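Morning, I've got a small favour to ask if you have a moment. I've dropped the whole record in just underneath, so have a look.
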Amino acid sequence: MDDDDDIPQLSSHTLAALQEFYLEQQQREGMKTSQGFNQYSIGSIEEDWQLSQFWYSDETASCLAKEAVLAAGKGGRIACISAPSVYQKLKEQDGEDFSVCILEYDRRFSVYGEEFIFYDYNHPLDLPENLLPHSFDIVVADPPYLSEECLQKTAETIKYLTKGKILLCTGAVMEEQAAKHLGVKMCKFIPKHSRNLANEFRCYVNYASGLD
């Protein structure tokens, strides 16, 4: 007796989509194992939507990284809070005269060693002792959620770490709250993500930047 009739069959469309997905995965894995793989390239650690992760486009990450370096100055220190794409782009700039660390909830980024600092915005000042107050020339931050609570708590961390300069990326709907909690103003530059988001994103700063 042939039991194949009882096995549910995938539609040709679903099958094609699955095959495309697996092919993409294989290609990514192939890139990772190839000799020239760059562990700092955007996408080397994939987005986890459950953690509200959406990576910037390469062009946006490059622009924000360049701005951070200029704002920090020679020998400057840069902190990236929940902004791993900017951190990765900064690390691609070997030989540049600055230092950077990444504060991130996702422990997959611990592959970056001592520059990784576990960060939970619910505990904004639960930071390692070696992160001294006002010890960074600029803090680049992208709070994971578009809520005032998330912004307010992340703002505590930002204000604790920065010597003064702040570069914030968040939704356009957060403009009023960003001004209230961090004294930042919206820039003309519009950040883009590698996947189009429903919410309009903007950059905010509290200094004369190159993003206008």
Summary: DSSP finds five helices and seven strands in the chain. The first strand starts at residue 76 and ends at 81. Residues 170 and 201 are 6 Å apart (CA to CA). The longest helix spans residues 12-33.
